[in-house]
Amino acid sequence: MSKSDSPDSSGAKKQKPYGHPENDLVTDYDYTNRPMPGPSTVEDLAGQPDPVLIRERNRQSGRQALFYAIGAIVTLLLGGFLLLLLSRMIGGPYCEAGEATWICTEFTRIAWPVFTSAYAALTLLGCAIIMVRKLNQHLRWWPWMAAFWFLLPMNMLWMTSVLPLAIMDGGGNLLF
After folding, report:
1. Transmembrane residues, as ranges (predicted)?
2. If you placed Cys at 116, which of 11, 66, 80, 138 could pair as Cys (CB 3.0 to 4.6 Å)?
3. How do residues 39-81 score in pLDDT, each as one tens digit?
4. Which residues of the chain have pLDDT under 50?
């Protein structure tokens, strides 16, 4: 069986869109991409992107999604830690009284969870926007969907862990 043919569920051979083997630059993963509109004129056919370029963009899309997901988590944790470190270095009434070690002021108690949670929400929204753009560009979008579903529970865990700091006082009582 040649590389351009693959059996479907009935066992019959399924012809890939680029019938000639040297033009077969599409993997089975790419069949989930939104299909490109077919050319209607010779000029449209000549203006179609190079299959090698499309294959490289599809590969880049997967790598970009992986780096985005990992980078979002690393920058959230690192940024949150640096903000806490800055709060500790500046100091404040809570740290001087011995009530806290990291969040030393009322502003920090409210701002740190809100800012870090907003960053987490923006990374998730950015991932969703990039995913839709990849889909509309007829590129490999499903790694971005995987990155989205990886970031979503992480964001939910982060927000449910840190946002209560903004609405509770030091004794665990709600402020409103």
Report:
1. 65-90, 110-132, 144-167
2. 80
3. 778 777 777 777 788 888 888 999 999 999 999 999 999 999 9
4. 1-6, 13
Q: State the sign of the Cα–Cα–Cα–Cα dihedral 52, 55, 56, 57.
A: positive
Stated pTM of the model: 0.74
The residues near 135 (Cβ < 8 Å, ≥ 6 apart) are 33, 34, 141
Q: Which domain holds residue 161?
A: 53-167
Q: How far apart are CA 85 and CA 69, in angstroms?
A: 24
Bridge partners, 168 (sequence order): 174
The pLDDT value recorded for residue 11 is: 54
Decide if 39 is inside a domain: no
**Rounded Cα–Cα distance for residues 31 and 2 (Å):** 18
67 to 55, 70, 72, 137, 167: CA distances (angstroms): 19, 5, 8, 20, 33
- Quick one: what percent of the chain has pLDDT higher than 90? 41
> How many domains is the chain built from?
1
Both tokens assigned to 21: 């083997």
Q: What is the spatial distance between Cα 48 and Cα 39, in angstroms, rounded to a whole number?
A: 8
Distance between CA atoms of residues 110 and 167, nearest Å? 8
In a domain, 137, yes or no: yes
Residue 160: CB atoms within 10 Å:
10
| Residue 40 is assigned to a structural domain of this protein | no
What pLDDT, on the 0 to 100 scale, is given for residue 21?
A: 52
